Amino acid sequence: MKYSLLNPPNSFYAKIAPYKIELVYENGPRILIGRGSAGAVTALRLHELDHVKKNGDVEIGDFLEINDSARLIVGGKHHVDGLIVNTLSQSAALLQEINSSNKFNFTKLAPSDLLKIGSNVVVTTNCIVQSGAFIGDNCILGPGTICSSPVQDNSIIFSNNGIKTLPAKKQVRWWDGTYSEIIQFTKDGLPPTKSIDRQRIPVVVCAVTKIVNATIKSLEIIGVKNDGVYVAMGDLPEHKKNYLSTLDDRPLVVDDEILY
Fold first, then answer.
1. Which residues sit opposite 72 in a β-bridge?
2. CA 88, CA 90: separation in Å to the nearest integer?
């Protein structure tokens, strides 16, 4: 099943939300996206993929909340290398440059300069997260942040290049629970009581079928990984295949166990 990301069906993101996503495409690095973070796909901008592929994976954790105006730059750096800055005027100008694509000024990446984002990260209006950023868990990037450096867990980046630490009571690793428990946590505020084996979370493997101006425009679900073992879409048990191949159906039924 192919899905255009210009106007993705609500059920596409909702049905795969309990699972990880792996994006695969020719001449590019593996991109692994955590549970509830599928919205990151439309924010990604992919450049110099041959070079990046040699240097490892791009990883985005669980439950990334990202504004429509923010961008995640994979494979290219620009003239604010190694900085965490927060100026709305500067980020707005860079976003205009990034979105025009052909005017973006790239330099080669160092081997360690990949993009990694932890879990429960909020990326707000006009933010740019570029290769070289290693953002920890439980972080908030305030409006206009341009980030290409490591950010420690539980950090809040706000105007005038300031960084604060989240209060201890906010440093709860609620994303380590099962998806059902996490949904309940969002309703009653009670954190999950048991941790999930994160290595066992099924991975929905998607082929990137169209990239225009460094932007992913469409995906095709091609299979599922369980415990690292890949099974192609056509070889899946019928109930799993039906779940993934009827993402446009209504009413929406989300199952966080079916792909295990």
1. 44, 129
2. 6
Token representation of residue 143: 């409006």
- Residue 40, helix vs strand vs coil: helix
Convert the pLDDT of each residue in 153-173 to its tens digit: 999 987 556 788 888 877 888
Phi, psi of 224 (to 5 degrees): -140, 140
> What's the rounded Cα separation, in Å, for the pair 5 and 50?
24
**Tokens representing residue 243 in the block:** 């779940």
Looking at every residue in the chain, the average pLDDT score rounds to 77
**Is it the case that residue 151 has pLDDT exceeding 80?**
yes
User: Domains of the chain: which residue ranges?
Assistant: 2-170+202-245
Distance CA 220, CA 4 (A): 9
Q: Is the dihedral of CA 19, 118, 40, 184 positive or negative?
A: positive
* Strand intervals (E) in the chain: 2-4, 20-24, 31-33, 44-46, 58-60, 65-66, 71-74, 84-86, 116-117, 122-123, 128-130, 134-135, 140-141, 145-147, 150-151, 155-158, 162-165, 203-212, 215-226, 229-232
DSSP characters over 81-102 = TT-EEE-HHHHHHHHHHHHT-T
Fold of 2-170+202-245: UDP N-Acetylglucosamine Acyltransferase; domain 1 (2.160.10)
The pTM of the full predicted model, rounded to 2 decimals, is 0.82
| DSSP 3-state of 75 | coil
Across residues 182-208, what is the average pLDDT? 84
